Structures are given as C-alpha cells and as structure tokens.
Amino acid sequence: MLFRNRHFDDKPVALEILGLSVATAGNDPVPILNTIDVTIHQGETVCLVGESGSGKSVTSLAVMGLLPKGALEVTTGRIELDGKNLLDLDASQMRELRAQRISMIFQEPMTALNPVMKVGDQIEEVLDSHTKLPTREKKRRVIDIMQQVHLPDVERIYGSYPHQLSGGQRQRIMIAMALILEPKLLIADEPTTALDVTTQNQVLKLIAELQESHGTAVLFITHDMGVVAEIADTVYVMRNGDIVESAAVETLLRSPQKDYTRRLLEAVPSLVPRDARPESWADPVLSVDGLTKIYDTRGFFKKGRETKAAQDVKFRIKPGRTLGIVGESGSGKSTVARCVMRLIDPTEGRIKVGQTDIAKLGRGELQPHRKHIQIVFQDPFRSLNPRWTVGESLIEGPLNFGQSKAEAMKHAAELMELVGLPADALGRYPHQFSGGQRQRIAIARAIAMRPDILVADEAVSALDVSVQAQVLKLLDELQEKLGIAILFITHDLRVAAQICDEVVVMQHGRIVEHDTAENVLSQPSHDYTRALIEAAPGRHWDFANFRELSLHQTETA
Amino acid sequence: MAAQPQPTSAMQVVLGAIQLPRNWRLGLGPILAAIVLALIVIATASAYLYVPHNPMSMDALQRLKGPSETYWLGTDPYGRDLFSRVMVGGQVSLLIGIGAAIVSVIIGLLIGLVSGFFRLADAIIMRVMDALMAIPSILLAIALVALNGPSIWSVIFAITLPEIPRVVRLVRSVVLSAREEPYVEAAIALGSSMPKILWKHLMPNTLAPLIVQGTYICASAILTEAILSFLGAGVSTEIPTWGNIMAEGRLFFQIKPELIFWPGLMLSLCILSINLLGDTARDLLDPRLKKREA
C-alpha cells in the first residue's frame, strides 16, 4: 500500500489549534471538547477520525467560527491561522476570513447548494462578496475553477440547477466554490460519505490533486478508515472530545499506540471474504425469479417515461444462508428488497416464500405470509415509532398473529436478552437508546415473528464501525441459533465480504454478477464489479492486522 | 447520543404527541389571553344558573335606558337587559365555536386519514374537497341555513362543512409524509391491518397540528356565527347571540352605541384570546417555527 508519506516539518504552519475547549452554553456546561491540540502545515492533509459524538465536527465548526450560538461556546484555547487568533475576531472579520482564507465543504452537497440558483451563479456569488472583479474576469475565473474540478461540459453545467447534476458533480461544484478564492485551509466534513464508492474515489483524488497544485492545507473529517489510508498525511483519532492519539498515517495504521485506536482499526471489516461455510442441501426458503419493477410516470394527460428499477432479477436463498445484494445508489437493490417484502408491487416475476408465490397476492391474502419474511431498515432513528415503548413495538407483530399480550410481552423480554439488551428496558422509549441499541431493537422486532427470511436493507450502514461490527456479529449469532436466511442489501463491499455466503452485484436494475462471496471479491468476472472493488478505499491495507494485505490476498482482493 | 431518562407521566403517555421543550416559558400575552377567555367562559356558563333579568322579557317602560343599578349595561329598544343578553348570547357563540371546531376536526381527521393512505380514495375525496373549497364559505353557510332552518344545529352544520376541507388537507399532508417513515413500513411488514396502522401509527402525528387548527376553526366559527346572525341568516332572532344583538342594535347605533359596543367587545376579546392561545400552542407543539423567528 502506498501512503502519502510526505514530510511537513519544515513547512510553515497553516493552522494551529491550541488547548481548545468547547462546552455547552448555559448554567451547567457539559464539556464537548477537552483541551485539544491540532497542527496543520501548509499543503498537509490532516484527518480527524472518530465515531459519532467524538467532537470532530465541533472542532471544524469552531475553526470556522460557526458554533451554534447559545448552544455551544469556546471556553479556553486559541485557534491560530497564520499566527492570528481567530477567536479574537468579531463576526464581520470572521465573515471576511471565511472563503478567503478558510473554506468548508459539507457532507450533503444537495442541501449545501441553493436549489433555485444556477450553480455558476452560486460560484460567482463567492467572488462577488469577497472581490471586485469585472464581469468578464469573474466568469473567466468561474469557468477556470470548474475546469480544474474536472466538470464535463462546463458551459452547460454553469447554467444548470443543482438538481440537474449528479451527486459527484454537485460535490465538485462545492469544491470549486471552496477553492475559488485560494484559501489557505480547506475543511472537508465527511465530503464523500454520501457518495457512491466510485464517485468517492474520484472526489478524493480531486481533492488531493487540487491540494498539490494550490498548496492548500486540508482538515479532513471522516469516520472511514479506508478514506484515511488513501488521503491522510497525519491522523488525529478523537473520542468523546479528546484526542486519543495522533501520528503520521502509516505509523498509526502500522503500530497504533492506544487501545482505542487498535479497537477502532480492528473493527474495520476486511475486504477478504470470511471462510466459506459448508454447502447446504436444504430447499431454498426464498426464490425470486424474473423479478421486474417498472415505474411508469406516463399518465393520461402527461408525457412521462418508464424507469426500469429492477429487471429480470433472479436468486434463491437457503435456510441459514446469507445472500448479499451489492450495488451503488440507483442500482435497484433496495427496489428488490421492497418488492420481496411486498412493500411495493412488482411488475412481473415470481417471489416464492417457502412454497407460495407472494408476488401477486392481494393485501388480505398476503397477511398470513407476512410473518415468514421480515425486514430491518437502514435508519434506526426512524424505523421505530418514537411514541411507542420498545415493548409495544416488539409485540406489535405477534399480536397481529393472535398471541396474547402477556405471552408476547414475555417473549419480548427474552428477545431483548437475545439481542444483548436488558429485558427491563421494555418500558423505555426509542429516544432513550443509542443508534446501535435501536438497531438491535429493530432486529428483535423482526425476529419476534420467528421469520424464515430476514431482509436487512443497509441495516448497518448508518452505524459507527465498532457498533457495525457488533451488529454484524449479532446477525451471525442469530442466524446460527435460529437458522434464518438473510437477504443482505449493502453498498459496502467490506461488510458484504464479512457476512455473505453469496453475493449478487447489481447495476442499473440488472444482476451483472452472481457467485460466492469468495469468487466475486477475488475473481470478479464483470468490469463493473472490478471497478467497485478497485474504488474501495484502503483496499490494500489489512486494518485489523495493522499491515498490508499479504501478496496473495492483495492480488485477489 | 446518551440515553436521557425523561419523566413519563401518565399525562405524557396520553398526549404522546406533545413533547414540551424543557425550559418553556409563557409570555404575558398567552397568560392574559387565558385569563380573559376563562372569564368569558365562566360568565357565559354562569348565565345558565343566574342572570339579573330574563333576557327575553320586554318592558316597554324601560326602552333604551342607560346603565343603572338594575340594568348594569342599560337596556335595548325593547327594554330588555343588555347585560343579561350579552351573557346569554355568549352561550350560543361559544357552543357554536367549540362545536364546529370539534365536529370539523373529527370528521376532517377521519376523511384525511383515509385520503392520505389510500390512493384511489384520495383522488375522489380530494376532488370533492376542492369543489367544497371553491364555494365561498359564507355563501355556502347562508344557503345551508336557508335550507335547514335557523336552529343552532343547522348553524353548526353550516359552519362546519366549509371548514372540513382545510382539516382534510392538513391531515392528509401529515399522513403523506408520515407514511413514508420506515416504522410505518415495518408495521406493514409485521402484518398490521390498515385501520390499525392508520389509527395507532399515523393518527398521533396529526394531533399536534390538529389542536392548533382546532383553535383557529373555533375562533373563525364564532366570527362566522356572528356574521350569519348579523345578516339575519343565523340562529333565530328569539335566541340572543352576539351577532343578532349587534344586528338589532345597528338601527340605534347613533343614539346608543353601547348596544353594539358590548357584544362587539366580547366577540373581539374572545376571538383574540382564542387565536393567541392557538399561536402559543403552535409554538409549543412545533418549536421549529419559533426558532425561525429568533
């Protein structure tokens, strides 16, 4: 693995954070950041890594002077840009500084851009508010920066609205806006988290390239160790508002000093598939054949078009087995999951659960078959009714199938212990649990029906890596104990490698590859699969063992 | 996110929709409004037990008298006691206001839930609602009262009907966004029946906006009732209401403005305080709106 192994000790310091503490405002302040120190040299990329709630975003907001007023405030410390303490500046001086000296890109470019303004004008607006250039010069600079971020067909995109661009293009626009005034420091807060892997890869390369040519210092915030391995010069690991450890990227990944860093790295799922399980000879519990879903937006009065969200999808799962569906956004993987659950109606095809084809059953006829197949959703904050206690959520299904309330409650208590939560928490509400705990509850709710098949739709994508590892382990144990078949939908090849027996790769609504996890990841036969694997950040590094993947593995992975 | 134990009193369970911000404080306005409204309600309600004079009994000798110890606010052209009439008049106004609010919210809720969840029903229901909204509400109310006769119940019906489409639209929009929530999809996957999903998962989401909407409907219904009575198209003139007291006083407005002033004052205070309380409820139930102002 090639790290960026560059040295910056002789370069001037661009930004220095000295003993910065941030706490909540009010009468009894809760500390959010505890005297942290960060140094960024000119041209250096510093990664702040940590799980949610570690304080990495608060750090970046403090530097930008954008801490929410009345909620968070700096208690002690200095933030020095070129030797000037930013905390001494007033609002108007800070406004002058932003975009000129420091700029920021955000996670979700769609919400960061103004939806009713052409993107060219939005970039120009940055120039308008900080410089006085003649119109022609302004336009020239905007076109120039748009070319630098490798946007195709610049003239057309200049006059486009954000919704007319893809996610990757929008993020490029954001980067263009951030860099047009040649700031000293670029803060990137999870800039690629909302993007597909192939797009992410391009955006990471772009940031690195622009940094080289402009000599910008980059403060890069991420939770993804793969991204860190690709882009960082120096890494700061954060946890609960403290900096646990900081080192050059290779040193940190090879020989982490602190337990927390080790645990964090060990939790990163490996791209090398887990050992294959023995072949099963049982009859499949779920077989899908020729599944097609067409969204038809044509109406009586309007022109529209057909969108083929899924086409001729075919797979089967045996009890106790896990089939992964992998693909980027828009590949149709979630459409398949929702068709299989009959949350939407497939246009064509068969979905056999056990012996019954449920593809064409009506609402009433479907009801008795619902209990055989259950789903766990991506977002644990929205998949539980916030007004219901956990107990009420857990017994909803069993009550529908005629269990008595007392019996269902007793079973719910057992389920809570099965998923590793205290049984006496049944009376609590979802907001009293963390994301990982809620996902356990959602799994318990699905398991309460004793289903044959569990559909996990990006079920671990919203979780921190360490929590992700625990939930994956839980799914594995449940499968062992209960013999459920799992249909695992994910965009993350690493996760797929760790849990799936077989992997289906989807692109544009079609299956492009279907094989064992081992074969798909080590001998991909389709170009698209190969592109996906190549785009996976940090794919040559074995995070859990703190070394390169061995030569054999590197070749195959 | 750290698990924060929050008190779960019986009240909070009952009103699951309402989660008050932890440090909320009412300003002076809402408190004054609540006091004024409480006084009006107590005054009109106590008129059931005791009024100084029979509000219907005429006395030709006491026509258009000024305020005195026997007639606190004076008398009207027929020698009836204005104070008693204003007190009793409030009964009809409040009854119609509250009645119209409750009935339109309940009917609108039921129709809105169905409309928000079932596509086919939605297409039909919303066209009917569009048609209802296309007719000016006062005109529709006058027509309905003319059709059904001038009883309190027909006035309530006439005021309620034009309000229903607004409630339906509100409920429908809440249901449309809530039905996309994964917990609703999970409930479908768990085999819950449609009525159960509608009532237990979706309905609670509509409670907070409905409470606010209900107060506005209440205020506007009281006003509409007064307008109808003033036009002579409301409750029969034998029953005193704020509207028809003012209608009768209109002829003598130049000699004796109190005939319009007192019922008008009560009407304005009542509507003002209900609207103020509605605004307060909205700020408490949807703190985002308040933040936007700040």
Q: Specify Rg of chain B, calculated over alpha carbons.
A: 23 Å
Give the uncertain stretches of chain A in residue-range form: none
**Number of E-state strands of chain A:** 22
Give the overall form of chain A. Answer: globular
Cα gyration radius of chain A (Å): 25 Å
Helix content of chain A: 25-40%
Read across the widest sheet of chain A, the strand sequence of neighbours is: 6-7-8-3-9-10
Basic shape of chain B: elongated
The residue-averaged pLDDT of chain B reads: 83
For the largest beta-sheet of chain A, the strand count, sense and barrel status come to:
6 strands, mixed
Could you provide a short overview of the structure?
The complex is a heterodimer of chains A (557) and B (294). Helices cover 36% and strands 24% of the residues of chain A. Chain A is α/β, with parallel strands linked by helices.
Structural commentary:
The complex is a heterodimer of chains A (557) and B (294). Chain A has 21 helices and 22 strands. The longest helix of chain A has 18 residues. Chain A is globular and about 70 Å long. Chain B has 294 residues and is mostly helical. In chain B, 69% of the residues lie in helices and 0% in strands. In chain B, α7 crosses α8. The N terminus and C terminus of chain B are likely disordered. Classes of the chains: A alpha/beta (557), B mainly alpha (294). At the A-B interface, α13, β16, α14 and α16 of A face α7 and α8 of B.
Salient structural properties:
heterodimer; A: 557 residues; alpha/beta; globular; B: 294 residues; mainly alpha; elongated; disordered N terminus; disordered C terminus
How do the helices and strands line up, and which of them pair or pack?
The complex is a heterodimer of chains A (557) and B (294).
Chain A: E1 13-24, E2 31-41, E3 45-49, H1 56-64, E4 72-81, E5 84-85, H2 91-97, E6 102-105, H3 109-112, H4 119-130, H5 135-148, H6 154-158, H7 167-179, E7 185-189, H8 197-214, E8 217-222, H9 225-231, E9 234-239, E10 242-248, H10 249-254, H11 259-266, E11 286-296, E12 306-317, E13 322-326, H12 333-340, E14 348-353, E15 356-357, H13 363-370, E16 373-376, H14 390-400, H15 405-418, H16 435-447, E17 453-457, H17 465-482, E18 485-490, H18 493-499, E19 502-507, E20 510-516, H19 517-522, H20 527-535, E21 541-542, E22 547-548, H21 551-556
Helix pairs in contact in A: 4-5, 4-7, 5-7, 7-8, 8-20, 14-15, 14-16, 15-16, 16-17
Chain B: H1 10-14, H2 28-46, H3 82-117, H4 119-134, H5 137-148, H6 152-178, H7 182-189, H8 194-230, H9 242-249, H10 258-285, H11 287-293
Helix pairs in contact in B: 2-3, 2-10, 3-4, 3-6, 3-8, 3-10, 4-6, 5-6, 6-8, 7-8, 8-9, 8-10, 9-10, 10-11
